[in-house]
Amino acid sequence: MRILAIDENHPMPDRASGGVRFSALLECLAREHRVVFCAYSAVRWLDEAEVNRYRAALEKLGVIVRDGNPVAALRSEPFDAIWFGYYRPASLYTDEARFWQPTARILVDSVDVHFNRLFAKARLTAAEKDYTHAQEVKTQELATYRKADVVIAVSEEDRRILQQEVQDLPVEVIPNIHRVPFLAESKNKIANSLLFVGNFRHHPNVDAMLYFCKEILSLIEREAPGVRLTIVGNSPPAEVEGLARDNVEVLGFVPDIGSLLEASDISIAPLRYGGGIKGKIGEAMAYGLPVVTTSVGTEGFGLSPGQNVLVGNTPEAFASAVVQLIRDRELHEKVRRAAWTFVNERYSVSAVSKRIRDLFGRLGGYPVKKLSSAQRLTKTVRYRLDRHVFWRLRQARRGKA
Length: 401
What we know:
Layout: E1 2-7, H1 17-32, E2 34-39, H2 48-60, E3 64-65, H3 70-76, E4 81-84, H4 87-100, E5 105-109, H5 114-125, H6 128-147, E6 150-153, H7 156-165, E7 171-173, E8 193-197, H8 203-223, E9 228-232, H9 238-241, E10 248-252, H10 258-263, E11 266-269, H11 279-286, E12 291-293, H12 295-298, E13 310-311, H13 315-327, H14 329-346, H15 349-362, H16 373-400
Helix pairs in contact: 1-15, 3-4, 4-6, 5-6, 8-13
């Protein structure tokens, strides 16, 4: 099968959990299909060497990279499927994809159902501007999904949210994908060490660290005076960098956090709002860390609190769960082993690859939506004008310049 994937930027798996999932998904597809990827937007906060590194990483996976205007990629060859990385690229280019690839099935990845996350934030802040923004995103997001042939959700919970809003919306579930190392012995962990990993360009992570350091950490320190916290993540703002002190280290972006995950004793995810499946939690469990989080952090996973994760929805409950794991090493071992097994069985590369293979095996059963005659005529006229008239005007302007 010939697949074109379109997104704003190349996946950045060492900077955001969404990049981990998308990169692994493209790798799985490239093993069995011809996969072309197009990134159409410049990453202004990264230098060219870093952008080239992410492009080269995709090519190493067997993905053909054609950056620039997606229309050029859409016109380059016939495709059987177009995969949009999330709703915004799809909102810009679905009609173009329909015009240039009328037989291709269009898939839009919802990633974490953006409007659901934004409404969760609005409920927390109770700010009218947050409710307004959430409603605006919801309107655009759902309009985009209605145009797709298939919408991808990361969990059954997200599928239910989408189908409650749009009846008969075709939604398939492809969850997060994690590489799961062998479970290491816990004796090599640094005692009383806590780890938080998060992309700080994503505001729920900023809120989580401010909440933890201002309302929870002191409660833990009373019971475990030697506790240390390491904060890792892309682009920490000044308010997060300002959390650093003797027992709180803010490292910022770390290209490879494997050694930190192997050495840390407990992973924390004190999220107060969010959406989708939280990559930081799955990644920590894959490395054999017990995780303390909130109910928000467990959304979509299918986890069992008290068995493979500990949950605390108030500062006191969260601190108590962390102290329990520090003091009770039998509980620590039980939770981390159960978590590792859970992720290995449901979210490993081999487990999710089967779901991806099954989806593309059934993709032909989904009907392809069409542009209306008026839409197709409008685009045809616009294309011919651009090809035969407008380009001459542009050339003339350049000549005068």
